[in-house]
Design brief:
9-stranded antiparallel sheet; about 20% strand; binds zinc ion
């Protein structure tokens, strides 16, 4: 009998159609790898050298206003540019390139240099949710923009160049690869079952409870069955909503609440700032109705066994498929046990 807590096995990611190798028997092996240094959290509310703090000059020479809430601006070194011609360059079907117009923005969560989502108040996080919704609507209504990706890189380990709490919003003409994979799988499930893939998956997870982390009236945070990153979380809306613009005021507050609770649990795991990439997946803004899309967020944190030991995606993972040692169930149990009172506040 296959025992998912003991035997090496593959798990199917029904959201993007890939597989992950799970090796639960390896969790006892000794570690002799690199020890990363994590910097302590910034303790100053304002940093005169931070290009995101209110009133400071950015690298491009523009000066930030003395903002007192959220603040959004076009990225000074944008990866996408709006005037790019969307033309195809195809050489004999072997060398194919397509011009990709887009708009990239940066959004500061608050004027405070030191307050992460875990330590902001729920009403202040709700202002960030409002900003995300208005940016999604504004950028998405541009006929050149077919998709809006909102994401946060938190911590130096994830390549965040500035500790000031902020996110990025990259909007593009085309639907990016990972989003297109999830769209394909959700559409296929809908065609085959006449129901929503993530609504069906959430019902099963609520029934079992094995992978749940926390929930409120509108959202559920869980470690997905097919998680690749050690403490990966999938955040699902309980109702079938396809994008952030469909969230009413009460649901926006509920989203703010669950974001704070997830990040507080993360910081409490190793009593240290928990690095991650997080972002929302939702209905593309390409004009199609997309009833298959179920609004959700992913958290991909790299930490494994301590605040300094991270997971690497190398070797078999680059050449074969992703692999993990601790099971999704044991990671979920650990996150479920965490306090929702932040270690720095107690
Ligand atoms: Zn700052
Ligand atoms: Zn759904
Ligand atoms: Zn997704």
């Amino acid at each position: 009998m296959l025992d998912l807590a003991q035997h090496p096995h593959r798990r199917y990611n029904l959201l993007n159609g890939s597989w992950v190798l799970v090796s639960p028997h390896r969790t006892q092996r000794p570690w002799q790898g690199a020890i990363d240094k994590t910097p302590p959290p910034p303790e100053i509310a304002y940093d005169p050298n931070c290009y995101l703090c209110p009133g400071n000059a950015r690298a491009g020479g523009v000066r930030n206003p003395a903002y007192s809430s959220t603040f959004v601006f076009d990225n000074d070194f944008a990866a996408l540019l709006p005037a790019t011609p969307p033309e195809t360059d195809d050489r004999q079907g072997l060398l194919i390139a397509i011009g990709e117009p887009g708009i990239c923005r940066v959004a500061c969560f608050s004027p405070r240099h030191d307050l992460t989502i875990a330590r902001m108040s729920v009403p202040d996080i709700a202002l960030v949710v409002n900003l995300w919704a208005s940016q999604y609507t504004e950028l998405g209504s541009n006929p050149k923009i077919g998709h809006v990706q909102i994401f946060e890189n938190r911590g130096e380990m994830m390549g965040a160049s500035n500790p000031h709490p902020h996110c990025q919003i990259w909007s593009s003409r085309s639907v990016p690869t990972e989003v297109a994979s999830e769209q394909r799988e959700q559409a296929a499930w809908r065609a085959a079952h006449d129901s929503c893939l993530l609504c069906d998956y959430l019902a099963l997870e609520l029934q079992s409870g094995d992978r749940l982390v926390c929930e409120n009236e509108s959202f559920v945070a869980l470690v997905p069955f097919w998680a690749v990153w050690p403490f990966e979380i999938l955040l699902l809306s309980k109702r079938h909503l396809s994008a952030i613009d469909e969230l009413d005021a009460a649901v926006r507050v509920a989203l703010a609440d669950i974001l704070k609770r997830i990040t507080t649990r993360y910081d409490n795991v190793f009593e240290a700032p928990f690095p991650y990439t997080m972002g929302f997946h939702q209905r593309p803004t390409d004009g199609a109705p997309h009833p298959e899309w179920h609004f959700h967020a992913h958290y991909f944190p790299p930490l494994l066994r301590s605040a300094t030991i991270r997971k690497y995606m190398v070797g078999f993972e680059m050449l074969g498929m992703p692999q993990r040692d601790i099971t999704a169930e044991s990671a979920a149990a650990r996150l479920r046990d965490m306090s929702e009172s932040h270690y720095l506040d107690s």
